[in-house]
Amino acid sequence: VTGCAGMMVVYAGLAIRSKESNAALERESALTHTDMSTGLSSTRIALTRLPLVLARSARFEEPCGVIMLRWLDYHKQLDHLSSAQRGAVLSHLGARLRRLARNIDTVARMDDDHFVYLVESPISREKLTELGAYGLTFHDDDLFAFGSTDAERQKQIDRLKGAMADTGLVVPMM
After folding, report:
1. CB 119 within 8 A of CB 67
2. What pLDDT does 71 receive?
3. How far is CA 62 from the centre of its chain?
């Protein structure tokens, strides 16, 4: 009986140590996968996911997208804040971007003032305006097929202009 009780204590001690070790590994993994200031995915995760998103898009012939976000005047807006205030602002920004993203998408902080939103499938114009998008740029072949007639091209241009007017997005090149 004493031997059994002793073994139970050893077993319980090993189980506790194992749980603590697993928790430490999970914390370490989270640190390498998450930007701690914003709670968003790390640059490494975004760069790992990008080729997978593109491959999945090609395989299933579904559109995908990469939205690059830049925080204008980042340093001017944050330099005067204390470390705690800066952390609160970045945490709030991360929470807002995570709320806007769908479960299948990835939002990551690439560096101080650059963020990326990997869109796994089509996204609505309304969702783009929720993100605070200003506008979009593209090549002609992104809007209509190469070799399209003038009428087909104008139809697609008018369709895009209407959608942009509805959402307040602009196309600076057009």
Report:
1. yes
2. 84
3. 19
| 74 token code pair | 């980042």
3-state secondary structure of 170: strand
Q: Closest Cα to residue 118, out of 60, 37, 53, 55?
A: 53
When pLDDT is cut at 50, 70 and 90, the band that residue 1 belongs to is very low
Structure tokens at 104: 């299948």
Nearest to 34 by CA among 102, 90, 100, 89: 90
User: Tokens at residue 128, please?
Assistant: 């783009």
Whole-angstrom distance, CA of residue 144 vs CA of residue 53:
23
Predicted TM-score of the model (pTM): 0.58
- How does pLDDT run across 86-136, given as a tens digit for each residue? 899 999 989 988 888 888 889 999 988 889 989 887 777 676 666 666 666
Across the beta sheet with 65-70, the strand order is 65-70, 114-119, 106-111
Residue 147 has pLDDT above 60, yes or no: yes
Burial class of residue 101 (count of CB atoms within 10 Å of its CB; 0-12, 13-18, 19+)? buried
Tokens describing residue 97: 């971007």
Cβ(117)–Cβ(107) under 8 Å?
A: yes
